[in-house]
Amino acid sequence: MGYALKHNFIPFDDYLAGERDVETRSEYLDGEIYAMAGASEAHNTIASDFCAQINIHLPDHCRVWQSDMKVIGQTRDHKPFAYYPDIMAACGDNTDDPYYRTNPILIVEILSPNTKRVDLKEKFDNYTQISSLLEYVVVSQDTPALRLFRRRTDWQAEFYYAEDTITLESVGLTVPITQIYRRVRREVGLETPFSSKTATE
């Protein structure tokens, strides 16, 4: 999703209170609020399918959300942040507030040209400060490619492509990369117009 600076220097508690009754969601970093733009059809389709696959592998005491549940935390400089991950999974009871989570085990962001810098730099830096987080996944929406960062490997990047299978240890899911892109095969180059025509003849 794209971002645009909406307000300057809003206290964090004011942001949390105001975010409950808004039509347009916003994210927060150190006093600044950023309005979130809409996402493409491919973005939403990838997120929906990936979220569904994660959901069926979760034990009953865990939950997964797509886009509408905030995660909050603090940066290395102890400045507050709040984001809406494209996918987030957490286990155990929510002891803080029903509108956000502080204890995710898995976060997934679907990468677009407008969010590449934020997802791979700012959000990476901030998400990895969350003590409960075990894995962070960045998924390309234009090509079948994923980057996986794990706490147990000190957040070193692992790269996965169309011919690979990925295992998310945090949620016990092993899935071929092509399965994540199964409904957007044409958009990400897994299926050419020629092969699509041939398949229907």
UniProtKB/TrEMBL annotation:
Gene3D superfamilies cross-referenced by the UniProt entry: tt1808, chain A
Keywords recorded for this protein, A-Z: Endonuclease, Hydrolase, Nuclease
A single MF term (Gene Ontology): endonuclease activity
Record lineage: Bacteria, Pseudomonadati, Pseudomonadota, Gammaproteobacteria, Thiotrichales
Protein name: Uma2 family endonuclease
InterPro entries listed in its UniProt record: Nuclease_put_TT1808, Restrct_endonuc-II-like, Uma2
Organism name: Candidatus Thiothrix phosphatis
Pfam families, per database record: Uma2
Transmembrane regions: none
Chain ranges of the Putative restriction endonuclease domain: 13-171
